[in-house]
Amino acid sequence: MVSWSEGSSSSWDDDSMTNQLSTTIPYYEWSGIAHELSYRCMHLEPCLRQVAIQSTHIGRRFLACAKEKAKEKCCYLEWIDPEWSVAMQFCIGQLWSMHDKENDDRIRENLKLGEENRKMGEELRFFKHDFAKLVADKEEAINQLGSARLAIGDLKKEIEKKKLAHHYSTNLHEVLRAKAEKERDQLVLERDQMKEEKKKLECIIADMMKENNGYKDKVKKLKEICDEF
């Protein structure tokens, strides 16, 4: 049997009976359904042993409705342990304040970290966007470089063709000029030969005119023919 402290209070005369504790801590020496106790909840059923871990009631044992579903539970609450002393409640309150402050600080830190993570995520997203743009620009530059190289290759081929054409034209011009010069030299040679022949013919005609005047008319015609050259 559980021994009750003199300062223990009942849920029927305690102002906190409507303030049923929702947060408890498991304790193997005070757990399970209290069948051996005479206390019954509003359902007239045995109560559940529990230990509070909330506010200044932390560590106090109590009895509550044993229904498993929250919506079926009644507001029955029977404290087994008396309230802590004023000094103890003050210390517990200070500890809870420290705990709440630490939680608030942790929440603020988490919010700060969350904001920093969000900013880092945005920066990372912008970086990925800029990096993707840089990669696209690089690929475009590589494509343009490839096109430029192809254009330069085509231009080189065209220049080579023009060089070959110019070289062929130059060779043809030189060949034609050499042929013209050869023909000119041949004509000059033939002209000189004709001049020599003409001189020889004039000498023959002169001799014939001296020897025989009868051939004068014929010689004259021959001379006229020679003069035409």
Automatic annotation (TrEMBL):
Q: Which domain of life is it from?
A: Eukaryota
**UniProt keywords, alphabetically:** Coiled coil, Metal-binding, Zinc, Zinc-finger
One function term, GO molecular function aspect: zinc ion binding
Domain GRF-type spans what residues? 41-83
Q: Which InterPro entries match?
A: Znf_GRF
Q: Which residues form a coiled coil?
A: 138-225
Q: Which PANTHER family match?
A: OS02G0467300 PROTEIN, ZINC FINGER GRF-TYPE DOMAIN-CONTAINING PROTEIN
Q: What is this protein called?
A: GRF-type domain-containing protein
